[in-house]
Amino acid sequence: MKGVKISLGLAAVAVLPSCQNFFSPAYLPEDEVQMRALEAQIEAIPDVESRSSFPEGTYEYFVSHLYYLETMVVYRNEELLAKATPASPVYICLSQQRGRLYVNGQVALDWPVSTGTEDRPTSQGRFSILEKKEEHFSGRFGVIYDADNNVVEPEADSRLHKVPAGGRWEGAEMPNWMRLTHSGIGMHTGMVVPGERLSHGCIRMPHEISTLLFSILELRSKVYVSDEVEDCFPCKEALRQGDELRVGRVAKRALARKLLNLTIDAEERAQQAAKLAEEQELVREAAEKAAEEARERAEEEAEAREKEARAAARAAARAEKARRKAAERAAEEARERAEAEVEARRKAEEEARERAEEEAEAREKAARAAARAAARAEKARRKAAERAAEEARERAEAEAEARREAEEEARERAEEEAEAREKAARAAARAAARAEKARRKAAERAAEEARERAEAEAEARRKAEEEARERAAEEAEAREKAARAAARAAARAEKARRKAAERAAEEARERAEEEAEAREKAARAAARAAARAEKARRKQAAREARAAARAAKVARRAKEGGWWGRTLNALGL
Q1: Dihedral (CA of 322, 324, 325, 326) sign
Q2: Which of 2, 6, 487, 571 is most buried (CB neighbours < 10 A)?
Q3: Order of strands across the sheet that contains 151-157
Q4: CA dist 228 to 233, 442, 505, 525, Å?
């Protein structure tokens, strides 16, 4: 593949030198002879003074200037403009591409215009303004957009071009529109190039001038359009002097244009020769680069195959290591589960022993609590008896004293005392009964709690045994799962190894196909290089033909005047 690419690159390099026969040297002997002759003719023409015999600041001085018809300079007489009325006529001179506004027979305003081209000329004659619109858009000429707002036709004619589905029409903007004919001819703001006819028939003028005329003129104001200078120009003597000044310059410019064309042609040939050399150098560099890329690609492929082999070996080693780790992890998990079961049984036994001790201690506490309750009840009974005896003694003393004070009261108190003693005895009996009942209840509660604790211990032992059985079953199932997982891991490792081998084979096949495709592309690239060389030869021939046509066009414009004159004048020629 490397040899094929190098041979194709050398073949492409060999094709281009044959195209040199279609190019001329930078300078031919006959070109140099013509250039020297033209330079001698230019030097023989005397320089022309651009000064005028008319007073400076007058309209005649403005018209007689050397560059009057080739600039965008506007003449304004503010004194006359202040007197302008809708009746002031406007004259448009097609041959000069100038417009003039007359006030009381004198020129108040002189400005450049661009009228209709040769294919769509501006109508001549006397016209009246039929319509005025400050904002106006053409109904015939404009731009057509498609549904995605892309320009389809930048210079569309509504009579010739159709708007696509979903598209739109946008008429050309014509500010300060002043209609002259019913066929769509009028005066408005537009692009103006001095001395050039650019429009579709309308009279274009600078925006400042159109705004001024729009404010002065009204409907039925007169506009005269003529191709003859005599029909619309009063300062013929000033124009004659300007023409005399321009005669020498026009001749000098025509010779300078010829000299410039010869120089341009020689420079273009030199540039084409340099470009051809650059293209040859690029082709050589491309061939060397293709050879280098082929060598690098071969090295990369060898390195890639070696990397794949190493990757396959590493994958197999990783699979074996993963299988061993899975087996070790399963064994470790089984050992940990056995230890966890032993620890759980030990903890269950220790918890049962602690619960038995807690129950014995609770029973002992309940017995002590019952004894303390009985002692508190006996103590309460004694205190109640002592309090009753004390109260009886106090009442007896009170009765003795009361008897001394009044028998009736003594008798009543004796009755109350007997009743109080009876109540006290009944209260003491009820207190003793309540204490006995509390002691019995405490004993029954302690017995009930002991029975409940015994049942809870039995239930806990049963649950612990059941959990131990469940853990044993889970461990057995886990060991079985670990064994199955190890088997699956081994199967996956084997499958991964086979896939890696298949992938390596597939990639090798794809690389072979890519190499074949690259060779085919290199062949096509060589064919395209040869086609480009042929196309470059044809383009050069077409370029030379266009240069000849351009020279003829320049010669024709040299006779008519125009933008070549302005360019050469700007260059000082």
Answers
A1: positive
A2: 6
A3: 151-157, 137-145, 168-173
A4: 9, 144, 90, 63
Beta-sheet pairing, 186-189 with 203-205: parallel
Note the pLDDT of residue 49.
47
CA atoms within 13 A on the CB side of 312: 16
Predicted TM-score (pTM) of this structure: 0.38
Long-range contacts of 357-365 (CB under 8 A, 24+ apart): 358/453, 359/450, 359/453, 359/454, 359/457, 362/449, 362/450, 362/453, 363/446, 363/450
R_g of the chain computed on alpha carbons: 62
DSSP per-residue string spanning 474-525: HHHHHHHHHHHHHHHHHHHHHHHHHHHHHHHHHHHHHHHHHHHHHHHHHHHH
Could you report the per-residue pLDDT of 191-239, keeping only the tens digit for each?
A: 999 888 989 899 999 999 999 999 999 999 999 999 887 655 556 555 6
The residue to which tokens 């003719």 are assigned: 41
Nearest to 507 by CA among 301, 358, 351: 301
Task: Estimate to the nearest angstrom the gap between the alpha carbon of 194 and the chain centroid.
Answer: 45
Distance separating alpha carbons of residues 187 and 47, to the nearest angstrom: 40
- 225 vs 197: CA distance, rounded Å: 14
Question: What is the distance between the alpha carbons of residues 67 and 46, in angstroms, rounded to a whole number?
Answer: 18
Residue spans of alpha helices (H) in 169-235 = 207-216, 229-232
Distance, in Å, from the CA atom of 497 to the CA atom of 490, rounded to the nearest integer, reads 11
Of the candidates 352, 295, 259, 287, the one whose C-alpha atom is nearest the C-alpha of residue 40 is 259
